[in-house]
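wait is this the right file?? whatever heres the structure
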């Protein structure tokens, strides 16, 4: 299960989202659609544990999370 509870995130003084809450249960298939800059990649980065929310909680009840970057990257802490 993946759960966001009252999650907010701001970049450079711009609120990407505020008070975001949702739950994805095991076995559900979900699509995430939106214009550029509305926070889709930010949500995926939070699920992967690459960034933290400014407020609220992100719960991921899974032992393995995979994440593929759109461009080539090295993660310095791994």
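ok assuming it is, sequence goes like this
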């Amino acid at each position: 299960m993946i759960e966001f509870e009252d999650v907010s995130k701001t970049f450079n003084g711009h609120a990407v989202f505020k008070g975001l809450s949702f739950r994805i249960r095991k076995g559900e298939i979900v699509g995430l659609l939106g214009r550029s800059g509305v926070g889709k990649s930010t949500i995926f980065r939070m699920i992967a544990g690459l960034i933290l929310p400014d407020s609220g909680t992100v719960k991921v009840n899974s032992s393995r999370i995979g994440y593929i970057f759109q461009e080539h990257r090295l993660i310095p802490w791994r």
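The helical segments are 40-48. so i think its the right one actually
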